[in-house]
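Q: Two folds, back to back.
A: First:
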Amino acid sequence: MPSSSLLCLASFAALLLLSACATAPDRRDPLEPFNREMFQFNQDFDEKIARPLAELYRDTVPLQVRKGVRNFFANLGDVIVFVNDALQMKWHEALNDAGRVMVNTTLGLGGLRDVASELGVEKRNEDFGQTLGYWGLPAGPYLVLPILGPSTFPRDTAGLVGDFYAWPVSHMEDAAVARGLGVLRFLQARSDLLGTESVLEQAALDRYVFVRDAYLQRRESLIRDGRSPTLEEEE
């Protein structure tokens, strides 16, 4: 067989191998066909609606104002962190996060400035999904939610419900203001991610698999507070 034919055959075999690796079934993702459809829906929504709005927000709102908005919502998020610290009986961390809320709400002018971080009070990450995992609820299958993106069912999906009710804005009497703050929070969060798309495109052979694996690994790391799983847990 000519060398050129051998080269073509080797290249074709390599492509088949890469394709098989990219589409191999994952026991964590039994809903993959549905999830891929929802992933594509979210990609289309982001491309046509979310990203253009986030770019408009970035280009029209001054940097210092956006920084204040980011700090304001981060301060409200620390309330959720504090609640979940308490539910996980992490009393030292609960005091840390309660201190952050008090300092930023008072000295930080309602949270517009992150004075706590300037004073060396660490910002942490806890949510109801992590709390459910802390108390032993399995993650369950991977699930892509519309607009909200990666999750698991039942653990992280149920956690989103808990986070919603712990979110202070959810209890505002003026529904219009609450919705407006929700939209502003979304725009700020999406604008903070502008520019990261190229990293994903360069790093991922299959964007869906890349996002899924990154999400699941990060969630388990958060639940374990960065500790490695034991051999029994891995099995």
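A: Second:
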Amino acid sequence: MWTKICGIRDAETARMVAALGASALGLNFYAPSPRSISVETAREIQAAVAGKDVSLVGLFVNHSLEEIEAICGAISLDLLQLHGDESPEFLAELGQRLPELPLIRAFRVRESDLAFVAAYLNECNRHGKRPDYLLIDAYSPEAFGGTGKVAPWAVIQEHYLFDTWPPLILAGGLTPENVAEAIQTVQPYGVDTASGVETEPGIKSEELVSSFIKESEKA
């Protein structure tokens, strides 16, 4: 099971999470988030996990193409995660500018079905660029993510078109206590957590991260 621990804020935490076996570290560049970091800190994190078998995912929320390009020019990311209101046209342009980086497109779900995701992917097809992965998060009017709210697993399991849509990364309120059940219910490609392994916003617990990864692998 692919596991991403999002909102890594310092080199020491990055080393700890990588050593515990996470597949990916999420680096948040969205300034209003309590988990956001500077490019300088991202460089320190990159150096701390150099040579480790862990991917670095840059998280962006309604950044401009130029801002994303500048950050990608300053540090070596392995994937890009778009967690805002980015359009299919934006994805297509970003894919042309940074073709080597896979794209994760996040959606916050509150509807009783995933028709809006289907419509978005249809538009992506029209523009010639689909996301490489879809991340489904819980909807919150207060924030774009990291709220601890649980996504509607039953809706996702019933309506996600696993055979034809990009691989699914499940997020939204995942913790060591519920991640195994979430995986068994939804059968995603991967799982993503931030607040579910924290003692306070932005502060990761070694015990909780370890437990989350172990429970994910057991499911």
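Q: And?
A: The longest helix spans residues 115-127.
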